[in-house]
Amino acid sequence: MDGIHLLGEWYGCVADMPEITRADALRTLCMRLSDDSGMSIVGESFHQFAPAGVTGTVLLAESHLAIHTWPEHGFVTIDVYVCNYTTDNSAKAERLFQAIRDALRPQRAKFQAIHRGGMDA
Amino acid sequence: MDGIHLLGEWYGCVADMPEITRADALRTLCMRLSDDSGMSIVGESFHQFAPAGVTGTVLLAESHLAIHTWPEHGFVTIDVYVCNYTTDNSAKAERLFQAIRDALRPQRAKFQAIHRGGMDA
What we know:
6-stranded antiparallel beta sheet; homodimer; S-adenosylmethionine decarboxylase; alpha+beta
């Protein structure tokens, strides 16, 4: 039951853009880009912190997207995890990850790709 | 903006227990154990796959819990990610991870702990 999990820490994002500060704007962005990337959305939850900042997830048939923003630091963490059960979803995951990165425009980034699974289920 | 992300792949879980097969049972378990572990819940979303299997997340003020089950394989993947922004939440994360593991009782497990952040925000 192999899968790929992409983890990003993004620094120097545009701190006052609605997609960083507001749950509704980030939800709209994540839902649209998940769909554009060929993912199958099965649920979502986004929470607005006061005065600004968001934590949210999009549940995917392929697994999940999770994102957290700290506008006061221009900082974002993101996870895109897909399981490659019946088909290889790695390309979709990379597409989604890159599309959100393009939207939030970090100046610096840390990236890790973690292989999941690897034992016989 | 450091954080710790615990990733588990659990094999040989009891495949027919409701907490593996049913979204409502897994939601109840995850919400209770998140609360018991001292986490602050700010949202949740769980999806029921047909005929069985669940994907779900609990949004935390500390970051998130994500869990996916494949009952037909007795297989579960889990993520517990906490950011240690104002306080060190690592112990809470380990407590939550272990509590869910105790509940789902995998026979074999793969575990990774990923350090997140590490650049100046």
